[in-house]
Amino acid sequence: MSRLPISLVTASCSLLLFTFGSIGSAYADSMSALIAQKSVQSNYSSPAYSVVPSAKVSTRSTIQRAGTYRSNTATQPIISTRYSTANVINTPSYGTQQSAYRYPSVQNQAPVVLPAFLSGNYDNVDNEYLPLLSSAETQSSLAAREVVSMARKMALNERTIIKGGCWDYLNAVFNRAGVSRDTIHKGTYSQGPYARSDEIEVGDWLYYINHGYNRVEHSGLFVGWVDEASKQALILSYAGENRREPARYRVYDLSNVYQIMRPSV
Q1: For residue 97, how far is the Cα from the chain centroid?
Q2: Which end of the chain is more exposed for a tag (fewer CB within 10 A), N or C?
Q3: Cis-peptide, bond into residue 111, ω within 30° of zero
Q4: Which residue has the higher pLDDT, 131 or 98?
């Protein structure tokens, strides 16, 4: 085995030492730069250069025992609601939202006052027909109500006597009530045509054949049907003929009504 010359070995060692020295110097330089960078970051992480403050940890307990809670309106959160304040009852206790349901208010209805004439005793009307007379006054048109009410006052309360017969009495009723009359059905006593029952209304001045008294011509004020199917109706009738008697309410057969005059304002 041949040996290298000493000069060549020395040169090789010098080259290796130079190479490793260069690498070590470069490594040392990079390590110095890294240390310097870490040092700067460490300085900026100090409280003097901190951007975000450190979190504060509180050891105070927020747990409250049952029954010892005290409302503090200054620290309670505000609860928003989409309900209308007109329908929600808000109370300060515990900051909770109450039910929007409202109990219906009780309507205090005024007592029904019955007409005074219903409690009277009369010799010109049967008491069983007084409710029908009351309904006629309250459930009819304005003009008809004026006529029916005026006729009732004249017959029951004032017991008015008029010179003449049935026509004169009803003419006085209409005049005192301040209403006029329109003829809506016109026929003749003997030939008709006779009105149907559904053509007759409260307050109508009717001309009809009086089947209960020798089938004579008669006129009266229609109040209401007692039995419409059999044409039986309550009529205010005035006999006249110098009898000096007030008008009376009686049931008549209206099978042959040949003229209707209706009150109008």
Answers
A1: 26
A2: N
A3: no
A4: 131
